[in-house]
Amino acid sequence: MSVDDSSHFLASLRLRMPAPIRLRELIRTIRTARTQAEEREMIQKECAAIRSSFREEDNTYRCRNVAKLLYMHMLGYPAHFGQLECLKLIASQKFTDKRIGYLGAMLLLDERQDVHLLMTNCIKNDLNHSTQYVQGLALCTLGCMGSSEMCRDLAGEVEKLLKTSNSYLRKKAALCAVHVIRKVPELMEMFLPATKNLLSEKNHGVLHTSVVLLTEMCERSPDMLAHFRKLVPQLVRILKNLIMSGYSPEHDVSGISDPFLQVRILRLLRILGKSDDDSSEAMNDILAQVATNTETSKNVGNAILYETVLTIMDIKSESGLRVLAINILGRFLLNNDKNIRYVALTSLLKTVQTDHNAVQRHRSTIVDCLKDLDVSIKRRAMELSFALVNGNNIRGMMKELLYFLDSCDPEFKADCASGVFLAAEKYAPSKRWHIDTIMRVLTTAGSYVRDDSVPNLIQLITNSVEMHAYTVQRLYKALLDDISQQPLVQVASWCIGEYGDLLVSGQCEEEEPIQVTEDEVLDVLEGLLVSNLSTPVTRGYSLTAIMKLSTRFSSVNRIKKVVSIYGSSIDVELQQRAVEYNALFKKYDHMRPALLERMPIMEKSATNGPTEIVQTNGETEPSVVEPKHPPLVTQPANQANDLLVLLGGNDVPVIQTTMPTKPASAGGELLELLGDLSLSGGPAPAPAPSVPTSQPSFLLDGLSSQPLFNDIATAAIPPMTAYNKNGLKIDFTFERANPNPNIAVITIHASNSTEADMTDFVFQAAVPKTFQLQLLSPSSNVVPALNQGTVTQVIRVLNPQKQQLRMRIKLTYTLKGSPVQDLAEVNNFPPQSWQ
Predict the structure, then answer these.
(1) Please, what are the domains in the chain?
(2) SS3 per-residue string spanning 506-544
(3) Given CA atoms 654, 656, 661, 662 in this order, what sign does their dihedral have?
(4) Is the pLDDT of residue 624 over 70?
(5) Nearest alpha carbon to residue 810 among 654, 663, 643
(6) E-assigned strands of 557-714?
(7) What pTM was estimated for this model as a whole?
């Protein structure tokens, strides 16, 4: 058979083959599938037929086959084998083929596949096509999946179409230009001349896409932002025409003229007016008109009002306009739509710091949102309620929040309890109210409170001398009612141990005293020791309380028996306590009354920074103190065991460090972690004992009469990032001190990229025993938001043995009213810093 005969045979055979089914028939067939397996079988059978058709280069049904393939792709089945067929359709002269080909390219291709570069020339030809619809297809495809290479090659064609008088092409070219700018920002200036006349267009489609293009350019370039600020009056005029225009069926949506264009213009005005007085002044009137004239009965109007509120809050608007915006958000809180209520609460939470009084007017509505069934609305309402608490409304707000704490889901209890603690500590009107509030939280949500709530409450009770009898009586009653809340039981045990004599004597004046015997008190504490609900920590509190009562009660023999029983406890901690207390009874009984006397008043002061915080009746009063460089003393080796375990060092038994005069509450947890070592700078202590001459000289020996940093020599030590988490970044820079090269001077630089300031910032550090460390006072205890400043602090480290430097750091700060604490270990110091 000759070649011509073979070709004729194949052609006739192809003509006799049945035509592939249409897309509608395929959809109808697939929808009849009863199971997933049956559907997969249909898809696989059709894909096989499509592959065969592609192999035979069947141009007649290529468009139909690619359309079916796109439908299968939409269902989630693989369709990558149709990519080249899409390119063939794009190269076709038929509009129907081009339409399916470009659609396939947008769905099946992206810039990760090299195949897409093959269509660059086709798109360029189609951008210059005589038919606007073909040009529109090319613009849509380039604006959807064009890579940076394609955008560079075709940007000139897009810019030409942006200047055309055809509205259909101009709107598509504007959106395509947005994609080009996103991919290749340096091409932005190419489109600048074409943007001059875009806002003069009457076609709303062109106006909409033009505003999108201007917004993109302003967001990406400060120069463009300054250039386009002169367009504010024109944008205001367009927005005013939209509001004042009559009914237009072409643009009307629920009685509002083109809300999509209004929203876009408001967003652009927000960008243009931010931090600019003149632009803000020019748009104040129109924003007031939009805010007062927009219908709120439909969701369309609410969308425009929300954008208006955001614009008013971001620009330098007048105070009356800001109050109007907050009142709009207050009306949103009464809306039946949960999404609108959530948006309103979120927006109010952002503005409460700057417009506190205006938000306060809607306090009752915000509190009502705590009763909402939607958990996201309840959480936002809770956060906003805590932000609204101040000294004037503390009693009413705490009443509502405590009621919420009683009835809320477990997921809210921890955050709510923390918020109540912070608010009560800051705004408590009296110490009795403060104690009652904290006890109410411990009674209702004790299992959810933070770990530091127990020592904080104990400190509060200790410092409230006149409330001791009242407090111990209240706690004893609470203990009789419920012993499941472990933090409450721990505080109650501690108070009964300290003030048990006041409980038995009935000296309470604030409320009617109760009649309690010594045996009844001991029965309660012994019950805690054997209760299955008690944790090991709670049992330790109870045993210590019983031991303290040996100097306050007359039932010493009974207490001796209880203590001796737990000398063989399987709990090592409890056993150790009991053995030590037994030794007090036997060997050191003469010292027992002095050792177990009442705790003195605990002073609460900050450990970091030049400002000391003095607690006064729930209010914090800062008092400036002079930063001093503390003298240096030697720490005994047995006090550093915890630090050794923490950092894995066990080679040097002695660590020398600075010692402040008194322990500070803010650093208490770190001191406990590091074996009662103070590693931060503080007020100067009493004169320290002299260091034996046989030991190496410490970090600052001989420098007491000189400026601290007069002998620092800069060395070529590269900086490093020691910590970068949750928006807080800690950088270390290094220097060498002369004449001692063993001393490394590390300066920390703390920066904050979040939207809110980090307050009460405390940086603490610890090193192994082979090193000596001094941490000096920081430049501030507030890390400014948005990287607008840094907090610096100096660390001096003596490394006589030239070992690799390791450091454990602890960071504590308050962000948006919530305390944050984190530990990190730094092991990647540059070798030049320790060699």
Answers:
(1) 451-596 (no CATH), 720-833 (2.60.40.1230)
(2) CCCCCCCCCCCCHHHHHHHHHHHHHCCCCCHHHHHHHHH
(3) negative
(4) no
(5) 643
(6) 611-616, 619-624, 632-635, 655-658, 712-713
(7) 0.61
